[in-house]
Structures are given as C-alpha cells and as structure tokens.
Design brief:
56% of the residues lie in helices and 4% in strands. It is built from 14 helices and 3 strands.
Length: 319
C-alpha cells in the first residue's frame, strides 16, 4: 500500500495482483464549515454569506510570486488530469507515474499556495451552500404566495417552522408537510409528541399562512387579539375569574391554546377540580371574552379554533 499525503491518495496492490486507487479528502474536515447545528436555512445562508466575504478578500489579489506559483501548480494539475483521463486502468507503471506526478506537485507547493487552494475549495463549497439555501427560500416564498401550505414540503416546510418561531418542532414534524398540516387538528398534532400549546400555536400560524391572512414572515395573529396572548397574559385573565376557574392559571396555555379548548382538556388541566358542566361554562366564558375583545376584527379572529382542522375553517376577512 502506498499513501500520498499531498493528494490524499492511496494505491493498493491486492492479493491477486491488481492495483486499486482510493481517494480521501481530509481537507474537507479541517476546512472551516458553516454551523452544522443551524437547522434554519436563513441562518446557514447568513453564515455562508459572511464567510464567503472573508474568503473572497483573501483570494482577491495574490502577489506576483503567489500568482506565478499558482500558475505553475495549475500546469502540473492539468497534466495529472490529462494523465488520469488517458489511462482507465491501473498497471504498476501507470501507478508509478501517477504517484510521481502527485509527489512532484506536493514538493513544489508552498504553504501560501496550499492555503490558496484550500480557500478556493471553500469558496466553491460556500457558493453551493448559498445556492441551495437560496433555492429553498425561493421555494418557500413561491409556495406560500401561490397556494399557502398546499405545496409546502421538505426543506421549505422545515424553514417555515423556523420563520414562525417553531424550529424546535422540526424533529417531531419531520414526516409532516404543509398539505398534511391543513388536515390535522390540535390533537392530531399532539400525537407527534408536540405540547398542546405548541400544537395550537402551530395550527394558528398555519391557518394564517394558508389563507394569506398575514403579511409578516412569522404569520403572527393580529396584535392585541386573544390569539396573540402569551402564557402570562392568558394566566392573568384566568386569575381574574371566580373560583373554581382560577385554578386553571397554571395550565401553561397561550392564546391559541385557550381558543382551542374542549371540555375534556379543561377537565384534565383542572386536575379533577372541574366537572363537565364547569368545563363547558369555562369555554363559554372564553367565547364571550373573545367576542368582546375581538368583535371589531375580522370574523376569523374571534372564531378560529385548533380543535378543528385548517381545511374545515373558512377564512373570512369581514369585520
């Protein structure tokens, strides 16, 4: 076995006398990479765009000595490429010549030229990352603009989760796409391991996106609506109620969850303190409060519920 460090190539003579050539590439592992933990396309794109500026700056104007060195190395690389294209078999002579050419290239390289080629390779990788990210974002924008959630899938669907602030659900929803989301209610989403409040918030953002009811990228519900309440605002309203309903203030519901309740969920959250009649009364209080708070807004704002699917709820813009 012969290993050529500069080219990261291995020539192996097998037990039956044949010669095999293998290629490794440790430079990929050692080169700076975009953050692999960044699960959102926009973050990867921003990181790649920032890095490529630095790479391009380092490649911008090599001095005369480096330019001449690169030119010489390019000639040798072209010769190696021509040699490899000419021979589609590996005799001992071919391997010897090929290894010698690779060794010559290694010996003529300088520290500066090696760094130059590393940066060139990284530049090409970053261009690929930027291109892939741009395609995903373009697909996301086009899908939402034309058909809402209907054709949203794959990386574009995962990026939509990032845009609505729910990237934490990417694992649980790895087998879900936009059109399937329109057919799920809050209980169905919870079957994927999602909490009640997160499931309700997801369906609300999906409803707004699917029926094009919001202009911001996060598809936020109207400001000052009950649907926009966070956990603290919801708890404050519940605390203002008379007993026994005030016991629900520790439920951890947000506004979307509050508007998606069914009697069994209320009973469960009360830990047995409320019966079915109490639960129905509580939901009636929620409906009354929504009507008073959001009665002057579009009809859907006071009517939406995650207890039903997106497909089953007609969007209305009327006041």
């Amino acid at each position: 076995m012969s290993y050529h460090a500069a080219s990261t190539s291995i020539a192996v003579v097998t037990h039956d006398g044949h010669i095999e050539k293998w290629q490794t590439d440790p430079q990929i592992a050692s080169a700076p990479q975009a953050d692999s933990s960044a699960s959102c396309v926009r973050k990867r794109l921003e990181a790649a765009q920032a890095e490529i500026k630095d790479v391009e700056a380092s490649l911008e104007e090599p001095d005369d000595d480096l330019r001449e060195q690169i030119s010489r190395e390019n000639e040798v690389k072209r010769s190696i490429a021509d040699f490899e294209a000419k021979f589609n078999y590996l005799s001992e002579t071919v391997v010897f010549v090929w290894t010698s050419m690779k060794r010559d290239l290694e010996e003529m390289q300088t520290e500066e030229s090696r760094e130059y080629w590393i940066q060139m390779k990284r530049h090409s990788e970053l261009l690929g990352i930027i291109n892939d990210c741009t395609k995903t974002l373009d697909s996301l924008t086009d899908c939402l603009a034309v058909s809402g959630l209907e054709n949203l899938c794959g990386d574009a669907f995962m990026e939509w989760l990032c845009d609505i602030g729910m990237s934490k659900l990417q694992t649980e929803l790895k087998d879900t796409d936009g059109v399937s989301l329109t057919m799920l209610n809050v209980g169905d989403v919870m079957d994927n391991g999602v909490s009640f409040s997160d499931a309700a918030a997801l369906l609300l953002r999906g409803y707004i996106a699917h029926f094009k009811l919001g202009e911001d990228r996060g598809f936020s519900p109207p400001r000052d609506s009950v649907l926009s309440w966070d956990i603290k605002q919801t708890a404050n309203w519940i605390v203002s109620l008379d007993a026994p309903f005030s016991s629900l203030f520790t439920s951890g519901w947000n506004g979307a969850a509050l508007c998606s309740l069914s009697p069994p969920r209320v009973i469960e959250a009360s830990k047995g303190k409320l019966n079915a009649a109490d639960a129905v009364k509580f939901i009636g209080l929620v409906r009354k409060m929504r009507s008073e708070t959001d009665g002057d807004k579009a009809t859907w704002v006071s009517k939406w519920s995650g207890a039903s699917t997106i497909d089953n709820q007609a969007a209305s813009h009327s006041s």
